[in-house]
Task: inverse folding
């Protein structure tokens, strides 16, 4: 079975084609500037076909999907003979609310339910829906599956997901903690259990997804019991450009003093805050590390704050689960920044964590970076959300 994985944004579309017989990645690509002038980079990964990297007219997502299918099946750049070889499509959908605790086969009823979640993810769900409809237009009756970022977190108990605001806001408006990066947390926690040679149902795992957007998840016996992002991805850790946890009174104070509208204020909190706002240098942790080495105190402060918050939230999850067996680092910073991992692990002395510096210097592979005698094991596991989407699609369609 060959599955096309789609991650549609408002003006972009990422894709991978995966052969599920051996989980081999056959091709991947990115459509950019959809609705403007259009550009496609298509990379075949089987055979010796060349990379296609040129402008392609894409007035809508339908033309983008058509361009993807064209390249996947072309004689020069293709990896399959025809579209008939693509058995199913798996779509990343950001928000499923409380409606979806697992992946589902897409039909009109499911699509309507995804639309009902637009108020919870106004920037993402419309783009995901556009991608689904574009595939339907171009691919006809090929079965499609929706895989939700929020679904893995639906096992949280009410004491973890509820906010202490009048209860009717939850009943009437769905105000609660939803969490995000669920597909990533799900993949790495399952892989961690494999590496430890133990059933995930017997483990207490803290998953640290650390990138431009960052979140932690407490996974107890295979189920999420808490996560750091909330009603939106704005809260939790200080991130690349997002503020993380913030006293709501700060928002009122700044809006009153500077006359900001709520949209202006949220733009500041989403796009001008986090380590960018603290450092004044960059949202890229590589830039911050270089600036800190050159003596930039604000860059050093931004990094220290990030390390502290990861350790603090992880510590609270150790308490919430009454222990921890393993800690995972994943995503751009988690997988590639050995300094970040080492600095965060310094806070875990009370857990007996010991880091192997040689192992911690390794990049791009699944590896245990703690010592053998460390009572809590620490892992670096590159995430693979696309593979999770493909697996779910295979299991539901197959």
Result:
């Amino acid at each position: 079975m060959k599955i096309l994985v789609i991650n549609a944004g408002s003006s972009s579309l990422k894709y991978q084609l995966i052969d599920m017989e051996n989980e081999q990645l056959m091709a991947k690509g990115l459509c950019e500037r959809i609705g403007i002038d259009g550009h496609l980079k298509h990379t075949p990964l089987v055979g010796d076909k060349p990379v296609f990297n040129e402008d392609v007219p894409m007035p809508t997502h339908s033309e983008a999907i058509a361009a993807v299918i064209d390249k996947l099946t072309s004689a020069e750049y293709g990896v399959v003979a025809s579209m008939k070889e693509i058995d199913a499509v798996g779509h990343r959908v950001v928000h499923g609310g409380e409606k979806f605790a697992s992946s589902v086969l897409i039909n009109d009823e499911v699509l309507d339910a995804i639309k009902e979640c637009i108020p919870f993810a106004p920037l993402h769900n419309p783009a995901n829906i556009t991608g689904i409809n574009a595939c339907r237009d171009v691919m006809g009756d090929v079965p499609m599956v929706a895989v939700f970022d929020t679904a893995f977190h639906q096992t949280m108990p009410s004491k973890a997901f509820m906010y202490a605001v009048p209860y009717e806001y939850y009943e009437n408006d769905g105000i609660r903690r939803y969490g995000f990066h669920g597909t990533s947390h799900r993949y790495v926690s399952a892989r961690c259990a494999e590496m430890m040679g133990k059933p995930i149902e017997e483990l207490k795992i803290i998953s640290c997804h650390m990138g431009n957007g960052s979140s932690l998840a407490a996974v107890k016996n295979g189920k999420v019991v808490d996560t750091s992002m909330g009603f939106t991805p704005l809260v939790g850790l200080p991130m690349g450009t997002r503020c993380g946890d913030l006293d709501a009174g700060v928002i009122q104070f700044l809006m009153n003093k500077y006359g900001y509208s709520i949209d202006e204020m949220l733009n500041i909190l989403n796009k001008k805050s986090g380590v960018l706002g603290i450092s004044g240098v960059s949202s890229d942790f590589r830039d911050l590390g270089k600036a800190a080495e050159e003596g930039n105190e604000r860059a050093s402060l931004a990094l220290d704050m990030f390390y502290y918050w990861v350790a603090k939230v992880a510590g609270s999850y150790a308490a919430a689960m009454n222990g921890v067996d393993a800690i995972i680092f994943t995503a751009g910073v988690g997988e590639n920044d050995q300094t970040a991992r080492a600095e965060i692990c310094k806070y875990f002395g009370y857990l007996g964590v010991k880091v192997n510096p040689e192992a911690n210097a390794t990049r791009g592979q699944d590896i245990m970076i703690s010592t053998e005698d460390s009572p809590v094991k620490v892992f670096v596991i590159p995430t693979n959300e696309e593979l999770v989407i493909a697996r779910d699609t295979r299991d539901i369609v197959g």
Notes: The chain has two domains: 2-148, 197-380. The chain has a mean pLDDT of 95.
